[in-house]
Specification:
3 strands; 3-stranded mixed beta sheet; mainly alpha; about 170 residues
Length: about 170
């Protein structure tokens, strides 16, 4: 089995679960944060929504230099659930499109993360995809479930029924 044939179903499953969670974002509470050192609800949701860009960067380049990564001039983060979901759909569709059709050789090519002259690591693109796209998405989605629980927002099913939904 080709690596891409194993990665795509996992990606599709995790994206669908994340979409269900983002759809529960409470309007008017995106500035809420559980602790002063924590991201706001809106910032966390946007971070989740933009992770598809990491997928595109991982598969389209041999390296990323954090020193040169900047937001476009005039960037304003989306301020509504609908706008956050639009970014999520766009970024995840872009990530999926880049993954489709990748060969094992392309997925095993090395990828490097650095900041200027400081190299953090080099590993196969498939490993970066799993770590910095998939695991990263799952990690922050878990954080978002805690935020939403603290706001008493009913949680959707992710890997099975939640305490807020009937068993399926």
């Amino acid at each position: 089995m080709a690596l891409v044939d194993a990665l795509l179903p996992e990606f599709d499953h995790e994206v669908a679960a994340t979409r269900r969670l983002l759809a529960r974002l409470p309007e008017g509470q995106l500035e809420w944060q559980p602790h002063p050192k924590s991201m706001t609800l809106g910032s966390l949701a946007m971070h989740l929504s933009e992770l598809g860009s990491w997928g595109q960067e991982t598969l389209n380049s041999a390296a990323v230099d954090l020193e040169t990564m900047t937001r476009p001039a005039g960037y304003v983060p989306p301020a509504t659930r609908a706008a956050i979901l639009d970014v999520f759909e766009q970024k995840m569709a872009g990530a999926r499109a880049v993954l489709v059709g990748k060969t094992d050789a392309e997925l095993m090519a090395p990828w490097t993360l650095r900041r200027g002259a400081q190299e953090f690591f080099t590993m196969p693109k498939a490993s970066c995809w799993r770590t910095f796209v998939m695991n990263h998405l799952i990690h922050h989605r878990g954080q978002l479930t805690v935020y939403l629980r603290q706001l008493d927002v009913p949680l959707p099913s992710i890997y099975g029924p939640s305490a807020d939904e009937q068993p399926f």
